[in-house]
Amino acid sequence: MSMSEGEKVFKDPVHGYIYVHDPLIWDLINTREMQRLRRIRQLGTTYFAYPGGDHSRFSHSLGVYEVIRQMIHAFDRNGYPWPHDYDRLVMVAGLLHDVGHAPFSHALEKFLQRRHEWWSVALIESPVTEVHQVLESQQPGLAKAVADVIAKRFPSPLAVSLVSGQLDADRLDYLMRDSLATGVDYGKFDLARIIRVLQPLEDRLVVRQSALHTVEAYLLARYFMYWQVYFHPVSRAGEVLLRGILDRARTLLSAGESLLMPHPALLPFVTGELTVEEYLAMDDMILYTAFASWQDGPDPILRDLCQRFLYRRLFKEVPWSQVAPLGIDTIRDLVRAHGYDPGYYCVVDETSTVYYDYYLGSDREPNHANAIWLYDKRSGRITEVSSVSLPIQAIASEHRPLRRLYVPEDVWRDPAFQHIVQEQDRRGAS
């Protein structure tokens, strides 16, 4: 980071430079809640598959702020009627939108039974946090307004759409950043052009009609990043182990067993009874320290799972279609025969997403807030983008849950296991 009078500048691999002119933004960046994000991986366990994918939530949060800043400047350059009363609000919301992420980002949301957005709002609204105190010292009620934007309950859909929408700053940054960090080309698109062709129109963001193919490239990049990076089987294998470790620790504690707790916030984190202060104390490093301690502990399952996670001895995956429905009970028996507890060593992992979800309810009418709209300046007409794009129609209609079975490698290599898989393949072919 370099500084000049009245301006702070971060060197960034995606945007070149990230500029901070507002002292409020600078004060928020230096809060403990924002600095904690340096110790939380943006991509969770994806580094098991892509070694470069170990960048932080902090760098992404700065990037989202920068994209929103560039959007507002582009509106001004093009003479678009953007309500400047929202400038600071949306830039702050972009900066803080991920402040509530748990260790390893999305990987532990199911374990904690809370999405990160809930925690982001809770941290911003809690008087004990520095971000709340900084916001309220600037303007009473600002913390609630920022939380309302992140929670999508702010009265202006236009303001919300910059932070959370189909073409929001969050997605625009993370696709480019994650693609660059992992070294893949799938997530690349023309970010500068998208920012240039976005336009506020009444209470929504629209895109110039001429930019259809740029939007197609962006949505296809999102589609391919999910399949090639976010849903990568090795990354998901890391998540399976991560959740297994914490599930086992929770089970042991529930049974009255004692576990070494390297940090006082670790116990409430595992049991799921967290205060805001305890949640903020947790990060990736504390979990790594716990796993390093538990790998030498008395419980054989917890010890083995921790060693597997720390030294990348991951489970092997098989598509669910190759083992279900006839083979799963037999596989559980086989896992037991190898000396493993199927509850931790025979795991069905399921994930899914919607790549472009622009419908509201069962009437299949486009949702105003979720759709991407093309705007023809000459006619004044706006058109929902998938209605004129075959590629977008294809990915908008696709919602395939991805289900895999994970087992230890020695089980996977067992001829009996391979026989089950081959038998299912033959049944499917017939």
Task: Give a structural overview.
- With 430 residues, this protein is α+β, with helices and mostly antiparallel strands.
- It folds into four domains: 229 residues, Hypothetical protein af1432 (Orthogonal Bundle), CATH 1.10.3210; 71 residues, Growth Hormone, Chain: A (Up-down Bundle); 69 residues, no CATH class; 38 residues, no CATH class.
- Helices cover 51% and strands 12% of the residues.
- It has 22 helices and twelve strands.
- The strands form four sheets. Strands 4-5-10-11 form a four-stranded mixed beta sheet.
- Strand 8 and strand 9 form a beta hairpin.
- Helix 4 packs across helix 8 and helix 16 packs across helix 17.
- The longest helix is centred in the middle third of the chain and has 22 residues.
- It is globular, with a radius of gyration of 23 Å.
- It starts with a strand and ends with a helix.
- About 1% of the residues have low confidence.
Short key terms for the protein model shown above:
430 residues, alpha+beta, Hypothetical protein af1432, 4 domains, three-stranded antiparallel beta sheet, 22 helices, globular
Strand order of the largest sheet: 4-5-10-11
- Name the CATH superfamily classification of the largest domain: Hypothetical protein af1432
The domain tally reads: 4
Number of helices: 22
CATH class of the largest domain: Mainly Alpha
Shape: globular
Mean pLDDT over all positions = 92
Strand content: 5-15%
Radius of gyration: 23 Å
**What is the third-level CATH name, the topology of the largest domain?**
Hypothetical protein af1432
Distance between the ends:
62 Å
How many β-strand stretches? Answer: 12
Helix content: 40-55%
